[in-house]
Amino acid sequence: MPATRPTRPRNPVARRSFGRRGRRTIGHASNIVHCDGPDSPHAFDIIPLQPRNGSLDAKCPVCRGHGQWNTEIDLISFRCKRAICDHCHGAGWIETGSDPVARADIVMTPDGYPQWVVAFDS
Fold first, then answer.
1. Which backbone phi and psi does 12 adopt, to 5 degrees?
2. How do residues 46-104 score in pLDDT, each as one tens digit?
3. Which of 11, 75, 90, 104 is 20 to 30 A away from residue 114, measured at CA?
4. Planar angle of CA 105, 81, 51, nearest 5 degrees
5. SS in 3 state form for the chain?
6. What does the radius of gyration of the chain's CA atoms come to, in whole angstroms?
7. Domain coordinates of the chain in residue numbers?
């Protein structure tokens, strides 16, 4: 007769699912907030101000120097999804004069391969 394992009573409150590598995990409590943009109340929670680059003059008026904002944040575990500011390209600072600003970009070579280049915006 094969040996049988004693069964444990299941906890009806715990929500179980399979996590990484097939291990059983228990779900955690969450309070997820969706932010509509940089004007939302929790948009800049846990996001530091970007350091000022010497060539840039003023804080970005859209992201106020953060370079990004939360689009979704869990107020209990502070896990979040973020959006990069299109106005300052994530730098947090902008050029107010006529100096060109360098940014990384990808272009296609004549052979059809992608290549990283430095593009200048003025």
1. -70, -15
2. 999 999 877 778 999 999 999 999 999 999 999 999 999 999 889 899 888 887 877 88
3. 90
4. 55
5. CCCCCCCCCCCCCCCEEECHHHCEEECCCCCEEECCCCCCCCCCCCCCCCCCCCCCCEECCCCCCCCEEEEEEECCCCCEEEEECCCCCCCCEECCCCCCEEEEEEEECCCCCEEEEEEEEC
6. 24
7. 28-97
Is residue 13 pLDDT above 60, yes or no? no
Contact (CB, 8 A) for 43 and 34? no
Using an 8 Å Cβ cutoff, are 34 and 69 in contact? no
Task: Name the pTM for this structure.
Answer: 0.63
Q: How many CA atoms lie within 13 A of 39 on its CB side?
A: 1
Above 70 in pLDDT, residue 121? yes
Please tell me the distance from the alpha carbon of residue 91 to that of residue 88, in angstroms, as a whole number: 6
The pair of structure tokens assigned to 34 is: 């969706």
